Design the sequence.
């Protein structure tokens, strides 16, 4: 499991900037190596790893990115979602749980000890059309707070950047699901289609309006949607409903992005996305993330089916790291041929869970970097990575 | 005889229209057809066994064939549930027993309940009686529910790799309570697969709500054969 390796991608003589590398990778052009990116961590993972050797201050994804030395990639700080947020309130506490109203107005039960779980949702801010009319005030396209006060001052530095910079363009279905609840949102697609059409249309108009300024002021490198609308058994709504409600609205947004040179548009959707990939491609969303392997979203299958029409990010089974180092080796061997084809940035297929040991994670990083010819970065963790399980 | 149908033909039509209404998720039509069926003298057991259960089996088939997705399944399950509210007093009076009692739970440490709720809805639609013990359920609460309700099947849901071990703990607790021989255990949830179900000694793994019904029947048949 630990023999020397020849990098799968030969290094180029001229170093690329992180921005060039990222764009060239996703445009199937030659690169020195693929970008060194990872998804992130559960909160408990970093807590558990502190006992296993990482320093006290590494307590967030951003801090971990710096600690492990991952490539920098950022989004402009534009508020696309609800504003103002709801005031968080604690309604009730028991020994183990806390019932709260969160920033989106959802009443939910969460674990009091902070351990990660998807909460139990108890009540949602939108049930009726009247609720939606009230709620819509928080989705005002003309709200000046959508852009930061210091936007203009930040532009020169962003224009000189050497890293990829993009914009989050929100969500058509995922937000509505969050605001109405899974059962209500999915059945409303059939029982009250006019309400769903109205909500999605408003979100689309908001997105198109808010995007204008960023696209005018900057040459952005990517845009990303968030949907999380698939189970392990497939999408939450049928492809037929997806096509009716979502494809035309995505097309409006992706056309605007493309008219400003933004040609890498990804969607964040867990679960088995297989049935939705062709519809996202039709809608102008050309990159799939994070490709959950256990759910059946396999990057090699999407590449075989859609060729260079599809771009890929993620697709390394996080549960392989739970199983241990031989499984890590098998998993990395699986993705190397796909990396060689281009258009693919490999990393774990979701946040790294706390049942992965720090030692196995460091081993994964070392082997991934060795196999893919990614140089060890100048970062606090590099000595740990180099020594992992030698 | 215009405007009057023979009773046997009317019964067939009521059963057929009830089945169609449930498959189409039309709650209003389904409850109306249930009431009409009872008024026409069709026994509640017959409406359950010839209309509601076959309707939900059709829904499961449509889901497996990717003609139905979760919203269509949810609407059918809600229609079925509304019909059961109408039928329940009659079924109790006629001493009609469910296929089996099922205890459903999201395991300790986990609060997510969408998957559990979907599975329990589909099982109810298939003629099982459901005892939903909720989320974040410690093994002793599940064991107590099995004893109290004389359940034949336990359905456990987990969404996180960190809470999956609580499924094994629950199976161990059922063994310790001497219940394991007579109660089947079915597991499901995003991070699970058949291999994990085998590893922890569960009787079955269901990747989705529709297949949970088939698995539940399989597990019960196996238990009955043992």
Sequence:
């Amino acid at each position: 499991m630990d023999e020397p390796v020849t990098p799968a991608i030969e290094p180029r003589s001229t170093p690329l900037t992180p921005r060039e590398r990222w764009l060239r990778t996703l445009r199937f052009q030659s690169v020195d190596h693929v970008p060194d990116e990872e998804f992130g961590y559960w909160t408990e993972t970093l807590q558990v790893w502190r006992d296993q050797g990482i320093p006290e201050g590494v307590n967030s994804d951003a801090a971990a990115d710096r600690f492990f030395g991952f490539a920098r990639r950022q989004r402009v700080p534009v508020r696309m979602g609800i504003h103002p947020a709801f005031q968080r309130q604690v309604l009730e506490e028991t020994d183990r749980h806390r019932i709260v109203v969160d920033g989106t107005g959802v009443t939910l039960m969460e674990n009091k000890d902070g351990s990660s779980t998807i909460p139990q949702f108890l009540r949602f801010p939108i049930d009726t059309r009247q609720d939606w009319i009230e709620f819509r005030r928080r989705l005002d396209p003309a709200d000046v707070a959508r852009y930061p006060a210091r936007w203009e001052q930040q532009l020169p530095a962003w224009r000189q950047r050497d890293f990829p910079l993009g914009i989050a363009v929100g969500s058509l279905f995922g937000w509505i699901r969050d605001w109405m609840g899974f059962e209500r949102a999915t059945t409303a697609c059939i029982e009250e289609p006019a309400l769903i059409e109205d909500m999605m249309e408003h979100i689309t108009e908001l997105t198109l309006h808010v995007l204008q300024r960023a696209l005018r002021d900057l040459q952005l490198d990517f845009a990303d949607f968030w949907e999380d609308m698939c189970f392990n058994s497939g999408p939450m709504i049928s492809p037929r409903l997806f096509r009716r409600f979502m494809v035309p609205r995505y097309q409006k947004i992706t056309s605007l992005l493309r008219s400003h040179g933004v040609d890498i548009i990804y969607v964040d959707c867990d679960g088995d996305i297989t049935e939705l990939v062709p519809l996202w491609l039709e809608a102008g969303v050309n990159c799939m993330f994070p490709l959950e392997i256990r759910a059946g979203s396999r990057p090699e299958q999407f590449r075989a089916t859609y060729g260079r029409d599809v771009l890929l990010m993620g697709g390394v089974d996080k549960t392989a790291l739970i199983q241990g180092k031989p499984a890590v080796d098998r998993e990395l061997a699986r993705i190397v041929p796909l990396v060689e084809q281009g258009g693919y940035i490999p990393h774990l297929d979701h946040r790294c869970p706390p049942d992965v040991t720090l030692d196995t994670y460091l081993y994964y990083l070392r082997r991934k970097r060795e196999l893919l010819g990614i140089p060890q970065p100048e970062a606090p963790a590099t000595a740990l990575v180099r020594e992992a399980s030698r | 005889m215009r405007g009057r149908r023979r009773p046997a033909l009317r019964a067939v039509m009521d059963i057929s229209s009830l089945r169609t209404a449930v498959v189409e998720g039309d709650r209003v039509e389904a409850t109306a057809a249930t009431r009409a069926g009872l008024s026409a003298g069709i026994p509640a057991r017959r409406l359950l066994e010839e209309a509601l259960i076959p309707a939900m089996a059709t829904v499961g088939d449509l889901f497996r064939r990717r003609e139905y997705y979760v919203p269509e399944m949810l609407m059918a399950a809600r229609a079925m549930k509304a019909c059961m509210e109408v039928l329940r007093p009659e079924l109790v009076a006629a001493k009609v027993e469910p296929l089996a009692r099922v205890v459903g739970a999201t395991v300790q440490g986990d609060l997510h309940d969408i998957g559990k709720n979907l599975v329990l809805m589909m099982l109810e639609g298939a003629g099982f009686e459901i005892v939903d013990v909720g989320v974040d359920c410690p093994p002793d609460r599940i064991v107590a529910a099995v004893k109290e309700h004389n359940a034949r099947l336990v359905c456990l849901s987990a969404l996180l790799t960190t809470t999956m071990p609580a499924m094994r703990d629950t199976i161990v607790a059922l063994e310790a309570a001497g219940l394991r021989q007579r109660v089947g255990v079915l597991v499901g949830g995003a991070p699970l697969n058949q291999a994990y179900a085998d590893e922890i000694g569960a009787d079955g793994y269901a990747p989705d709500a529709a297949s949970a019904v088939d698995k539940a029947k399989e597990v019960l048949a196996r238990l009955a054969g043992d």
